[in-house]
Amino acid sequence: MYLFYTPDIATNHCLSEEESGHCVRVLRYTKGDEILLTDGQGSTYTARITNPHPKHCEFEIISQEKQAKGHDFYLHIAIAPTKNVERLEWMVEKCTEIGVDEITPLLCRFSERKQLRTDRLQKIVLSAAKQSLTPYLPKLNELTPFDVFIQNAKEQDKFIAHCYKEDKKVLKDEIRKGRDVLVLIGPEGDFSEQEIQDALQRGFVPVSLGNSRLRTETAGVVACHTAILMNE
Description:
Blueprint: E1 3-5, H1 17-26, E2 34-38, E3 43-51, E4 58-66, E5 75-79, H2 85-98, E6 102-107, H3 118-131, E7 139-140, E8 144-145, H4 146-152, E9 157-161, E10 169-170, H5 171-174, E11 181-185, H6 193-201, E12 205-208, H7 216-229
Parallel strand pairs: 1-2, 5-6, 5-11, 6-7, 6-8, 9-11, 9-12, 10-12
Antiparallel strand pairs: 2-3, 3-4
Helix pairs in contact: 2-3, 2-7
């Protein structure tokens, strides 16, 4: 069954124009058909279509269910956008499917991309969540300067993944069950040495994601999957 996103379902029993068009025009749902909805906050609703209008499809709720998250900790990935934005979009899509809770694009010293359309990324997040039938929609933040971000990081366990040759922990060995996790992923040119030192002073632990040198977007997916896997 297809999942429709309805963030204001508590006060409005009508699909958005975009969701209505997909429901009625594309999927050919009609009056009396049952559909599955989510508010993006963990609740799913079974509803029945009462007015199959292609711009404002109305429905009545039959039942509601609050679904538990697949993990009992908060997972935040902060990553420098890639020069080729399609690679970042791929990473955002896959992390959403895996179960990330929050994504923050980082503006770093060596960032090759210094502007970012988060509205397009938000659509990718929504599409990935619906495709994977995930009732929790990850939070997507605006592009944030590195120094501002690390000053405000509140997660219990904070890690910075980089490629410099120095003593580093292995991320999978550092994940502790049930504790909130934040992982920083740098740009194609990596973090600057000063950025790493600033992060360490803020309590971040330097980590490796494995023996291979990973692309930025691959590192984001690996970090996300590692944190989820080590909490199972």
